[in-house]
Amino acid sequence: MQLETRQHRRYSVIERRLISGRPVYVKQHLLAAEDGPHEFIRTQVEREIEVLAAIASLPGITRHLGAMKVVESDPAKAEIVTEEVPGEPLQSVLCSRRTVTFHGTCIRALYLAGKWLRVFQTLPVSPQIRVSRPGNPGDLVAHCDLRLRKLTEVGYHWPSSTSRPMILRWLREQIESTPREQLDEVCCHGDYGPYNMLWDGTTLTPIDFATCSTDLPLADVTYLIHRIEMLPIQFPWRCWPVALWRRACLRGYGMPSAMDLPIYHVFMVRHLLSRLKKLVESTPNGRLQRWHNAWLRGRVRSRLSETIGECQTKC
Fold first, then answer.
1. Three-state DSSP class for 287?
2. Which of 143, 302, 120, 145 lies closest to 229, judged by CA?
3. The CATH number of the domain where 110 resides is what?
4. Confidence band, pLDDT 50/70/90 cuts, at residue 313
């Protein structure tokens, strides 16, 4: 795994070390302000250890679908040691200036990302995995409502007081029209972006299961697609084959027509609301970053309005 010697993440610090001459990665979980007591971190570490062990034993994990191997762990110290995984972050491959050269490998990697997720969701849901991060409502509509209220609290003037109830009502209607099998909870990664996947040209290995919990089946694959769809918004001066990449993800996941499902668009609204909230709450440094942040907020808001508007028209 080609990472820096020490990498700081939102909920952890990962450090590359040598143990008996063998390269490993030591992950130290961090206590976030919203987490509360240290016992939550211990539970989180135990959950991640359980998930990693379960993934390694899945019959669907083949040489093309990788799994991290735990060397040792200490929940009391909130620490997990895993073997080094070959490859580089898929995010780096997708964003390489040689994307045209890597076109075939990008399609292959994203297809495997969808396929890996399908295998992962066959894991039985244990009571420990059901534990979620405090302050994160499990209900999909409640999650979106919380993000909308946060936008209002920080002074962002969207949506209007009359539009918000309409948005929430539309969300409920879409969920009510969703097939039952798409509303049954499964194991979810929780942060299934291309930066949390390692690709060596042959094997796709997801990493960092700190936010693993239960969610609806399309939660992870829609988040991966959301991250891909953000690329042309963040870097509009480049040409991105988003439609091809999205199709590869959904084909690998085994649901090429997932975009026709109402719940798919509900998840896209959830992801966009979370993105907008983070952009509004961020504090850019310098004029260029402030301009770019304002540009991103406008584009994300437009995408939200388009998605909700199109779906409300269909209703």
1. helix
2. 302
3. 3.90.1200.10
4. very low
